[in-house]
């Protein structure tokens, strides 16, 4: 049976998004400008190697971030940039230095090591610019480097708070929905008790009195013009009692959500979530539909806890004999930290129990490509429609046409 916690296996190379590709292209363009600005073929060759080292350092830091290995990779980027500035003063070797300064705080834990690293980079950059320009005013470039690093720290903290807020909002939304459903159930039970105690008893008393009056009228040999309406009134009273009891039972029955409610669940999710539904819906038992809804809700909440900031994909596939639902995330994005919100450890266990009670199965684990987590479930369903109903009606005398119907979960 799956457990709530996720284990971190071998780290894979993080997927590149549009921002990473844009930044890499800009780095290469600036590197090409720096190479062309170098004087002589030897310097151009050396500067080209330095530019490649700077690019590789940034990519390596992204793979292992946050760690001291990533900090060493960023140091290579910054050192290569400083050397490129010294060899090609008219180029754009400053770009790798500034890019490394913005990434460095993401690689080193908060504390004296981070402060010392940022100070060293700022001083080295300011001294290099002052030496190349021949003016002490170049030392002010170190202030800009410090400001960029400080801005990166602030951005990291803001992103961490935002991710934590998303996870907390997911938890709050699930709790709010549960409280609303509990309050609604309590209110329905209260109304059902009132109907049972007042309406049903009143109708039952009315039926007894009508029957007594009918018996007296029959004993007194009353005409049919009197006994007929009494019989009809007694019948209506009996029917009213049965309908009142049915209404009480319906009110006391719990309100079950189903697959049709998944769209509202995904739309209301505070993070980035997407829903895709494929196939023709089949007939699904209400209890099974409710179990599927709860499973998807728990899976999305887990993704917000442990893969904070990652897009979530919910895929619903209706097939001939079963419903397949998969909830996937892409793992913790590079530079992000977990929300720190921890579950009670029973979410996936409860999910499995619900689905298994509906005759289905649940599987949870890392995605085959190693990027993120996947929860998949299967629930048996009836055929969406009979072959006779879905086939076109035959033309000719005596041919009967009909509409094929389908029932959503």
TrEMBL record:
Question: Which Enzyme Commission number(s) are listed?
Answer: 2.7.13.3
**What are the recorded GO MF terms, alphabetically?**
kinase activity
Q: Which residues cross the membrane?
A: 21-39, 45-61, 68-88, 118-149
Biased composition, class Gly residues, residue ranges: 398-409
- The annotated regions of Low complexity compositional bias extend over 388-397
The UniProt entry, under PANTHER family, shows: NITRATE/NITRITE SENSOR PROTEIN NARX-RELATED, NITRATE_NITRITE SENSOR PROTEIN NARQ
- Protein name (record): histidine kinase
Q: Which organism is it from?
A: Streptomyces polygonati
Which taxonomic lineage is given here? Bacteria, Bacillati, Actinomycetota, Actinomycetes, Kitasatosporales
